[in-house]
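Chain A, query sequence.
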Amino acid sequence: MTLTPQNLRRLPIFAALSDAERRAIASAASLQHLARGERAFSEGAPVGEFFLILSGHVKLSRASRHRGGVILRIAHPGEPFGPAGGTQGSLQTTTAIAQRDCLLAVWPIETWNRFLHDMPGLAIGLLGVLERRLAVTQDRLIEIASLDVPRRIAHLVLRLIDQAGRQDEKGIRVDFPITRQDIAALTGTTLHSASRILTNWERQGIIGGGRRELLVQSVPALVDLATARLAGPAPR
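Chain A, predicted structure.
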């Protein structure tokens, strides 16, 4: 994806804008390359910029006193991230790390806030993005509260291949490195439980890829796991 007014039109956050407004937004952005593992910003750092992913994937996490870093979400191409409407001098509440090499569009926070003030369609588009993000967060909370761990992991993997799946000769591969610790953090379980479940699925030929990649070899089997009724005590 490149940063052009035509491409911005395809993204929900910019859909309600005029061509002139999209041109102004595109021309005000700079491009930033992040290597895999590099940070766009760290929790507690001053807010200075707003970001849009053009290619690659970014993990957003937050420190936790009890369980180390908690992964809040993984952002994909076409998604904005950073404090929406943040002000110069406020602090980042998350850490953003590239899951693979990324290309980002970046706006100084003062410029982004001026666009929000001057372009009501942009503010409405941003509210829509935040509303959808809240709905996803609510779905995750419901899963953690009501599903056993295997079904939570199955739902997560199905979401990942929907958002970032790439078909190859072996199945559908998630298009960025993801560890078993990441999967445990995203589903609210322990590394031990996640590893045991994923290893069992590998033996059954449902998934593959090893410890840092995720390959789905049988989507129907994964759907069955996601919708199966609880047959015994749920691991936590």
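The CA atoms of residues 51 and 81 lie 5 Å apart. The mean pLDDT is 90.
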